[in-house]
Amino acid sequence: MFFNVIYTELLKLKRSIILWILPIATIVPIILSFLPLYMTKLQEGEDANYLFTLLQGNLAFLNLIVGVPLFALIASYIFSMEYQQRTVNYLFTYPYSRLHFLLGKMTVILILMTFVIFSSFLISLGLGVGFLKASVDEEMLLHYLTIYLLVILMQFALIPLSILLTVWKKNILLPMFVSVILAVVAGLIMEYDIATLFPWSIPSRIAFSLTDYYSFASFSYNLSIVSLIFVFYIPLMLSIGYYRKIDVH
Predict the structure, then answer these.
(1) pLDDT surpasses 90 at 1
(2) More confident: 134 or 196
(3) d(CA 107, CA 2)
(4) Nearest 5°: CA angle at 81, between 77 and 83?
(5) CA-CA distance, 148 to 153, in Å (whole number)?
C-alpha cells in the first residue's frame, strides 16, 4: 500500500517542471567546480591529481548554492501541487491515511535528492578520470561515497521545515523565501564556529571537514548532529499533526 502511494506521487511529477530542474541543478555544481580546474590543467600541464579538488568543490557548490533552495523547492512543490491543482479533496478520499501520503511524499523527495547528489558525484568522478586524468583507488572512492551519502541524510534533515511551511500556507512562496534566506545566512557564517550549530551550515561544514577543504578544521560532530535531529524532528511532528487535522476546501 505504501509503495502504491510512492508510485502515484512519482507519476504526478511526470512532465512537471521539477524534472527539468533536476538535471540543471545536477550539472551546475559540476560546471562551477570542473571548468576552473580544467583550465588550470591546460595552462600549467601539471600531473597533479585534481580529483580531490573537483569533488571538494562539487560538494561545496552542491551544499551551498544548489542544495538548500533546490530541495526546498522540490519539497514545497510536491506538497503544494495538490492545493494548486485543487485535487487535495480527492486525495484524502483514497483508502490511505494522511500519514501515508505525507511519508510517501517525503520518500519521493528523498529519491529525488539522492538522484541529484549521486548523479553529481558520478559525473564529477567521470570528468575527473576522463578529462583531468585523475586516478581513483578503492579507499578514496569509498571515502567520498560515504561523504555524499552523509550529505543526502543531512540535507534531508532540513526538509521538514519546508514541508511545514508549505502545508501551512498551501503554496511554495513562503518556504522558498525562507530557504533562500537560510542559505544566505549559512554562507555568511560558514567560516565561524556558529556554523557548526546552524543546521543549514552543518552539511557544508561536515563535508568540508571530512575532505580537508581549505582551512575548515575538524570539530566534534555531536552538537551538529543534535542540531540536525532537532530541526528534523520538531517540524516533522508539527507537519504530521497539522497535515492530519487540516481542513480542505
Answers:
(1) no
(2) 196
(3) 10
(4) 130
(5) 9
Other Cβ atoms within 10 Å of 71 Cβ, number = 24
pLDDT above 90 (res 20) = no
Half-sphere exposure at residue 10, Cβ-oriented, CA atoms within 13 angstroms: 11
C-alpha cell at position 151: 550529505
Side chain identity, residue 82: E
Q: What is the 3-state secondary structure (H, E, C) of the chain?
A: CHHHHHHHHHHHCCCCCHHHHHHHHHHHHHHHHHHHHHHHHHHHCCCCCCHHHHHHHHHHHHHHHHHHHHHHHHHHHHHHHHHHCCCHHHHCCCCCCHHHHHHHHHHHHHHHHHHHHHHHHHHHHHHHHHCCCCCCCHHHHHHHHHHHHHHHHHHHHCHHHHHHHHHHHCCCHHHHHHHHHHHHHHHHCCCCHHHHCCCCCHHHHHHHHHCCCCCCCCCCCHHHHHHHHHHHHHHHHHHHHHHHHCCCC
Amino acid at 59: L
Residue carrying the nine cell digits 519539497: 75
pLDDT of 213 over the 80 cut: no
pLDDT digits 0-9 by tens, 77-117: 998 887 777 665 555 555 567 788 889 999 999 999 999 99
Burial class (CB in 10 A: 0-12, 13-18, 19+), 20: exposed
Residue 145 exposed, middle or buried by CB count within 10 Å (0-12, 13-18, 19+): middle
Rg of the chain taking only CA atoms, in angstroms: 19
**Higher-confidence position of 129 and 86:** 129
Does the pLDDT at position 47 exceed 70? no
